[in-house]
Amino acid sequence: MSHSQINYSNLIIRRANIQDLNQTIKKAIINSLIFLAPSILIALIVFQYEIEPLIIALTFSPYLILCIFAFIYNSGRLLGFFPKQPKNTHTWVAIYMGKRIGSTDINSQSNYSVLETLYINRSFRSLGVGTLLVQTLASEEIKPLYVQPERHAASFCEKLGFVPVNQTDLPTQLKERNSLFTSKYMVLR
Ligand SMILES: CC(C)(COP(=O)(O)OP(=O)(O)OC[C@H]1O[C@@H](n2cnc3c(N)ncnc32)[C@H](O)[C@@H]1OP(=O)(O)O)[C@@H](O)C(=O)NCCC(=O)NCCS
């Protein structure tokens, strides 16, 4: 259901805590199990129709390996065997009436930050949540704040005051990440 408006006094924007991160990891584990379900179906078909199991195994093995890898990796994160987040990364969340409706990761370096994976739930878009989320974190994070927006989101970033930045003016680490297939970085100073 799409919302036409929200009560902003019920909207909380804050840094994610350990419970938020565990919740995200649990969702990823459930997703990997859901994606494993088709392989059970395939096993049943193989059994039923006596299809050459080797052909099926070769066709689906990359998919299976990915699912199993995701399951093991996320379970390891949940149990504390692997870090919950990549180094120098933390998350901001937008919570509406107790439900997470948006989030973004921030990669913090000593003299700049990078905004990554900004996402607002479909039913809460165009209500100003994305704007509030970015404005709130921008007031607390190390500036300049860089973003490499998806093409359609460049105008959203412009409205927030981000401006295009030349490749030569980027921090070295970001230059390495830039490629032909991604849009240009923008910066908020
Ligand atoms: C881009 C995104 C984060 C914006 O969040 P939001 O809460 O909908 O944004 P706001 O309501 O604060 O939007 C403010 C303005 O930005 C612009 N804008 C927002 N989303 C836009 C989009 N997808 N395309 C073009 N302009 C957009 C609009 O001008 C909007 O003003 P309007 O509501 O008067 O039209 C959200 O659409 C989203 O999660 N998209 C999918 C993932 C994505 O593209 N992430 C961005 C990576 S940088």
Automatic annotation (TrEMBL):
It comes from the Bacteria. InterPro entries: Acyl_CoA_acyltransferase, GNAT_dom. The chain crosses the membrane at residues 28-49, 55-74. Residues 49-189 form the N-acetyltransferase domain. It holds the Pfam family Acetyltransf_7. One of its GO terms (molecular function) is acyltransferase activity, transferring groups other than amino-acyl groups. The keyword Transcription does not apply. Keywords: Membrane, Transmembrane, Transmembrane helix. This is N-acetyltransferase domain-containing protein. It comes from Dulcicalothrix desertica PCC 7102.
